Amino acid sequence: MASIAQAIRMALHYGETHLEVSDIFGEDVGPPLGGAFTVTQGLTKSWNSPLDERGIIGMASGLGLAGKRCVAEIQFCDYIFNTIDLLKLAGNTAWCSNGEFNMPIVVMTPVGSGIHGSVYHSHSFDAWAARIPGWKIVIPSTSLDAYGLMLSAIVDPNPVMYLIPKALMRTKGEELIPGEPASDKELRDLIDAPVDAKARATWKARWPALKEHYVPIGKAKHVRQGNAATVVSYGRTMPIITQIANRLADQGIDYDVFDLRTIYPYDWEALKASIERTGRVLFVNEDTEVANFGEHLMRRTCEELFYSLKVRPRLLAGKQIPGIGISPSLEDVSVPQANHIEKEMLELVHEPA
Amino acid sequence: MAAKQLTKEKLREIHSLMVEGRILEERLIKMNKAGEGYFWIGGPGEEAFAVPFGMLVHKGQGIQSDFLHLHYRASATVLAMGGNSIDAIRQMRSVSTDPYSGGRNFVNHYAIKRWNIVPVFSCIEPQYLQALGTAHAQREKGCKGITVVTGGDAGTAEGDFASALVWSSRPAGISPMLMIVTNNRFGISTPWDGQHGEKNVADRGKAFGIQTVIANGNDVFEAWDALETAMEYVRKERKPYLLELSVSRLYGHSSASGAPRWNEPDCIELFEEKLIKQKVMTKEECQAVHDKMLTKITEAYKQVQLEPFPDPTSIYDHVWSKEDGNNGRDTFAEQMGVDFTHNPPQAHH
Ligand SMILES: Cc1ncc(C[n+]2csc(CCOP(=O)(O)OP(=O)(O)O)c2C)c(N)n1
Ligand SMILES: [Mg+2]
């Protein structure tokens, strides 16, 4: 089964061969490296850019204005911050031109903690991204979704921010991507570049016959059904929550679990129906907690669903600190871990109505 | 064609467009002073370069035509390409008929897809970065189109200008991109001299092996030749080029500084002196053009006064691409609640 990195690589290959993607670029994106996380190995439209994030977003925007389809990478979202006004421009292009121009671009970037990346390789970008209107923002947590969301992002006529939870980059999927060989080894042999520099210099990927699979932007994934309480998350914390929910289901507590997958425009219909039914909700993400995207979901929950709630809604998010320390004892308490999440989930169902 | 060989008709056409551009800007300034538009910024004083520039562009849509990433002083360029002065007046008054932004953006913030004039924005210098993308698309084999980006002198202090030099000249991606810096020796109130140790902006291109030229942007003939040489070079060689033009800022930076008339060389006066000396036009003929344009702009202004302001419900339109349907309306955002009642803009005069 493909890892998320392999799934995105296959989606990009599908994009350059079937969806007219003309350029896939960023720092170390082209050969020989094929991306800091190997996401762009073996592609034919990939190339290395100068080390200049503003240039990368500007280049992508110009390609979009010229009617091209491109996927640009910012190596770590920690380095996207100096591009914010360019992201704003991409997001306001259609609006400011009264609909004359489109900005059909994809920007992908690894986000979040989980690899002991210290201060500059652990940031989140979901709350920041949500504050840039005009963008669609997606974040997969499984390989099949990573593939399907990338295809949807590529064909979307709007700018799409594609966030990749870096802690899950090597996580294997449980569902096959259409056309993917079932054996891990076979897939590796086909599409992973050899480590040896000499072998790599002449290496060419042998791509499986991939098929289209679109995950619609704006639709959450109903990961598990239950009536005890609603839990909503995305990204790194998603598999942790699913695992806890599966375990607690064996003890008779059935959670209604959603992987949001799209941060904007998010699937409020699905969340609303669930929260109205359970009257209990927990939002989980790892961005810092002040002006957090989960706070926005809390606001809508309070304003629109107040009278359906049985207990107070909860948000578990990253701590309000300037960075994430590299020592495990620091990182573990800075962003939600399994123990914190389980505690919140249990309190949520046991709080008296 | 070298400027010397321009026909009398062509010279008269250039003159007429320069005058139209100037009178348009003067009307926009007046509108702002009369409270008929919240902010003015534009290009009076840049017509000697702006009009030849618009005439030399290969206009059209798509990569085979030229892409323009313009500064906010490009009104005369747009007129020279065939734009209508009334549309700038519409944008000044922010009426719904403003074709460039539907009443959303400052005046002289153009967006014309059929001529590859990509949206002009207020943010200084990112246009140099977006230009890299259209120029990159034009690296395609056999492509004839080029990318032209314009900006001011002070803006070159932004990293984006340096980025444009690096990217457009990098060996793996040499790009057909003409960078034009209009040097009026000011950024709002800050003089060039105190902030820049380099003698000329153009000198910075040399480190990257970029062809550079400095020319007098107040002289139609010199500007024409400089632009034509630059555009031909980029079109043929498919390489970057940096052109620095000295220009006047005849009404100061913007309405924020009151837009008073400055005592700087006036390129229209200079051009008329030459036209009269070369017996292309008489003084009276020149004056007749001014009178005609004044009438034309006044008529347009009167018409715009009758046009409606945007419907407040249009705020959610075009958040998304038209291809998403429903005018690109973000109905999802709208569901969060909005009160469309408002105080209608005061009727003027
Ligand atoms: C990024 C950014 N910073 C500041 C401003 C405010 N601002 C508007 S115009 C201007 C000066 C620009 O000077 P220059 O580049 O020389 O162009 P000119 O207006 O002289 O043509 C400034 C500081 C802005 N619009 N964008
Ligand atoms: Mg200036």
Provide the descriptors you would attach to this structure in a database record:
heterodimer; A: 353 residues; alpha/beta; Rossmann fold; 2 domains; 7-stranded mixed sheet; 5-stranded mixed sheet; 12 strands; 37% helix; 17% strand; B: 349 residues; 7 strands; globular; binds thiamine diphosphate; binds magnesium ion
Report the oligomer. heterodimer
- Based on secondary structure, the structural category of chain B is alpha/beta
Strand content of chain B: 5-15%
Q: What is the fold-level CATH name, i.e. the topology of the largest domain in chain B?
A: Rossmann fold
Describe the protein in words.
The complex is a heterodimer of chains A (353) and B (349). With 353 residues, chain A is an alpha/beta fold. Chain A has 2 domains: 4-202, Rossmann fold, CATH 3.40.50.970; 221-350, Rossmann fold, CATH 3.40.50. Chain A is built from 12 helices and 12 strands. Chain A has helices at 4-18, 53-65, 84-96, 126-130, 143-155, 184-191, 197-202, 237-250, 268-278, 293-305, 328-334, 338-350; strands at 21-26, 46-48, 69-73, 105-111, 136-138, 160-165, 221-224, 229-233, 255-259, 262-264, 281-288, 314-318. Chain A has a 7-stranded mixed sheet, with helices on both faces. In chain A, strands 7-9-8-11-12 form a 5-stranded mixed sheet, with helices on both faces. The N and C termini of chain A lie far apart (43 Å). Chain B is an alpha/beta fold and 349 residues long. Chain B has 2 domains: 3-304, Thiamin diphosphate (ThDP)-binding fold, Pyr/PP domains (Rossmann fold, 3-Layer(aba) Sandwich), CATH 3.40.50; 315-349, no CATH class. Helix content of chain B is 40%, strand content 9%. Chain B contains 12 helices and 7 strands. Chain B has helices spanning 8-33, 47-56, 75-81, 85-93, 126-137, 159-169, 192-195, 203-206, 220-237, 267-277, 283-305, 331-334; strands spanning 67-69, 147-152, 177-183, 186-187, 190-191, 211-216, 241-246. Chain B has a 5-stranded parallel sheet, with helices on both faces. Chain B has a two-stranded antiparallel ribbon with strand order 4-5. In chain B, a hairpin with a 2-residue loop joins β4 (186-187) and β5. The model of chain B has no long low-confidence stretch (mean pLDDT 96). Chains A and B meet through α2 and α3 of A and α5 and α6 of B. Bound molecules: thiamine diphosphate (TPP) and magnesium ion (MG). The site of thiamine diphosphate (TPP) has 15 residues of chain B, from β2 and β4. Thiamine diphosphate (TPP) is lined by residues 73, 122-124, 151-155, 182, 184, 186-188, 253 of chain B.
